[in-house]
Fold this protein.
Amino acid sequence: MYTRTPVPTDGSDHSHQVAERAITPAGQFGAVVHALLVVEHVGPSSRRDFPIEKQEKRGEETLDGIAALGGENGVHVKQRLRRQQPSDQTVDVRLTTMSTSS
């Protein structure tokens, strides 16, 4: 039924919890988890006080953690780290798992 489960993440505790929750149905359906983290490099919300290189390193660590979690549960995780505006990233999917802090 589902072959891809995208998991957009920002490295927060909320997004890690979502990744944990996405792994189970991905395993049940034999889906691949597509973990995506976008490093903002322009625009008003970019982290000028947090250099891009450090954001990318933290992003890679976050994605590696999701991949390890998938591996522990027999789920393949494709990792994508992008440098652009998050709103510029689009993915054609039928099921998305996202987090919210509210």
